[in-house]
Amino acid sequence: MLVPALNPKGVAEAIAYAATHGIVVAQNGTSLQGSALSHAPMTYRPSPMPAACYHEARRITPLINGMVARIASDRAYLRSVLAETAAADAGFTGRLLALLADAPREPAVELTICRYDYFVHEEGGEKSLRMVEMNCIAASFACLGSKTSDMHRYLATHPVSRTDFDLASMPVNDAMGGLASGIAAAHEQYVKRFVKGAQARVVALMIVQPGERNAYDQDLLRMTLWEKHTVEMIRMSMAEVDEFASLDEDGGLRVLSPYFGSESIAVSVIYFRAGYAPDDYPSECQWNARALMEKSNAAKCPSIAMQLVGTKKIQQHLDLEGEVERFVDSKADADAIRATFARQYSLSSADNGEKTASMAVQRPDEFVLKPQREGGGNNLYSQDLKKALETMSSEERSAFVLMERIRPVVERNVIIRAGKVSEMDVVSEFGVYGVHVRASGQDLINGMGGTLLRSKSASQDDGGVAAGVAVLDSPRLV
Ligand code: ADP
Ligand code: MG
After folding, report:
1. Is 290 a catalytic site residue?
2. Model-level pTM?
């Protein structure tokens, strides 16, 4: 299909669309009062994606939601699979694992918002999905991603930017509404169970990093919650939780902060957009806040257990024979999930880690070395991978997993970053949000909550949108 030559008017239209529809990020942490915004980095056109892969990724989302929920409820499993990793990464994975004991045994209301990320890979002329990772905490960009889909549909029809792309091949994407509906449903269940008295002010709480540049993606979600569901959501950092929150006698989390009025307010849902990295815990006060929240009866998105399910170690372990099958009853469902897996390997000495490491040192371009970290920019590739594996002690090595390197399909696209345009070869990572709400052990929602496509230069190894490498995109189904 013809991609028309770049027209400066079309690019200006894209930037104007982004600015007027909230596809924006703060330029730095101190510009949050609106003094320095820029449009989020984005592609000018949607990138092509095989329709079959798109539909399959969506179809299996509730199956993966079910699997991760069952893993999260199996604390003994988490403890045993993560024991060695937790010892090697004591300051982070170890501390999270230690908090597992604090959670209520049978949570009344559970809310999970994950994002399952895939590359499309091609083998023998056939294109299929390869899972990059499961994000079980702070999966971001649902709102800016939804709006990028809208923007691409707008540009496809507007005279200054028109293409001959069929609009029907550019799916409408309401990840923003999907996430808001999940949070609102969990909120409603909480209120039903725990709130007495019609006058009480009950809010959902978003835990954020101080100075977050991606605050507008968060604000869009907060505002959608109010506009569509009349649920108030407030933002607080973990340090503020430590300062202003406490538990009442029933285990309810209460906030008494001058920023939110003079009355104490009740918290129904705690939605984490921070807490996934060691940097989010610069002192004990953040760990205290995390422990307090975990103990509370609010719906935690995620619980400590669910955050641990998202560790690279658990994902590597699931690739072993029989592991997915422990948590997925139907063989067909387990096979469908497994069909997306790339090979992963333990680097523990107990699992022959020396041999695996030397295999990777021989062929460093065929693997990715992953630590127990989130947020992009942490993995090691090629010569860095080789050097790291050659110099690490066996204990240090067990904090990492090794993954087969996926070689995603390369496409051509135009990227607009801070107003500057560049055409390049890109690879795209397709994410599907899973939304899962349970109350008293019963599923209320188990669904696909929308999608996200992010693209980056084909020459870049790693990194997401927040890490400054990838840009927002949307799929055009082919
Ligand atoms: P993070 O939690 O930091 O996002 P990811 O597993 O998603 O960790 O890795 C970050 C990035 O590294 C991905 O967005 C992708 O671009 C690249 N990456 C991760 N795993 C692979 C892989 N197996 N093959 C190729 N690239 C990968
Ligand atoms: Mg990732």
Report:
1. no
2. 0.97
